[in-house]
Design a protein that fits this description.
Layout (H helix, E strand, L loop, with lengths): L2 E4 L8 H8 L5 E3 L15 H10 L5 E4 L11 H21 L3 E4 L7 H12 L7 E5 L9 H10 L4 E6 H6 L8 H11 L5 E6 L1 E2 L10 E2 L7 H10 L8 E3 L9 H11 L2
Parallel strand pairs: 1-2, 1-10, 2-3, 3-4, 4-5, 5-6, 6-7, 7-10
Antiparallel strand pairs: 8-9
Bound molecules: manganese (II) ion (2 copies) and zinc ion (ZN).
């Protein structure tokens, strides 16, 4: 099974391999720069990263975009910065040889206008790096149909990331009706396009629309919920990235060990 976590590159891009090994993972997600800043540095140690990526059995590696980005925004300044930032993410991924750029669709008071703005924005981007649209707990992207609509209307190659916490908070009952939810993804987007799972438990209830991650098995999805998710035949082969808290109860290492023990 491919399981990893969102790790820091504060010691440089190539350090992701040591970070991931130290927690027992074999795939990873990173921010290419501080996710709460617009500042972008040109990536360093690109060659070293590419060399190690070829050699190491740590795949895939995914770039997650910045929290500040909103491609659906009506604010021209914010939208312009969001476009520039998104283009940079793709350029960085391309130079490092990274497989995917994962983005949150965005938000707008009028979801219809928001969807249109996201589509127009993404159609101004040229790249051969694969885009992943992440489902959200509320707003645009909380329905699989939103993601389907974007994918149908843009040119670049695009799939989805299924965040288990976001899906549950958005009202998809992956605990009692996992087959049903997987069926709905297949009917709308198509399971072939599901490339990544963000494996997070949820602090809040089904349909709460609240995005608060919890340690695997300690939240509302629970141990049995994750046992089913991890062992589901359609989900087994999809890489899983933890975005769980790091606190006195557990870190990523303990959550990865916990998940591995659920494999049947
Ligand atoms: Mn995310
Ligand atoms: Mn996520
Ligand atoms: Zn979240």
């Amino acid at each position: 099974m491919r399981i990893g976590a969102h790790v820091s590159i504060s010691r440089g891009f190539p350090s992701v391999f040591d970070e991931i090994k130290s927690i027992g993972g074999n795939c990873a997600q990173i921010f290419s720069h501080s996710p709460r800043s617009w500042r972008f540095k040109d990536p360093q140690n690109v060659e070293e990263f590419r060399e190690r990526y070829k050699k190491e059995d740590i795949k895939p590696i995914v770039i997650h975009n910045s929290y500040l980005v909103n491609l659906a925004s009506m604010d021209e300044e914010l939208h312009k910065k969001s476009m520039e930032n998104t283009i940079k993410e793709f350029e960085t991924a391309k130079s490092l040889g990274i497989d995917y750029v994962n983005i949150h669709p965005g938000s707008n008071r009028d979801p219809k206008i928001g969807l249109r703005r996201i589509i127009d924005s993404l159609n101004r981007i040229e790249t051969d790096v694969y885009l992943l649209l992440e489902n959200t707990a509320s707003k645009i992207g909380s329905k699989f149909e939103d993601l389907e609509y974007i994918i149908e209307n843009i040119e670049i190659e695009t799939g989805i990331t299924l965040d288990t916490c976001h899906a549950y908070a958005a009202g998809y009952d992956i605990v009692n009706d996992l087959d049903g939810v997987i069926g709905r993804i297949d009917e709308s987007i198509g399971l072939k396009k599901l490339k990544l799972i963000h494996l997070n438990d949820s602090k809040f209830d089904l349909g709460s629309k609240r995005d608060r991650h919890e340690h695997i098995g300690m939240g509302k999805i629970g141990v049995d919920g994750f046992r089913k998710i991890i062992n589901h035949p359609e989900l087994r082969k999809i890489p899983k990235i933890l975005e769980t808290p790091v606190d006195q109860r557990r870190g990523f290492k303990e959550n990865i060990e916990f998940v591995k023990r659920l494999i049947e």
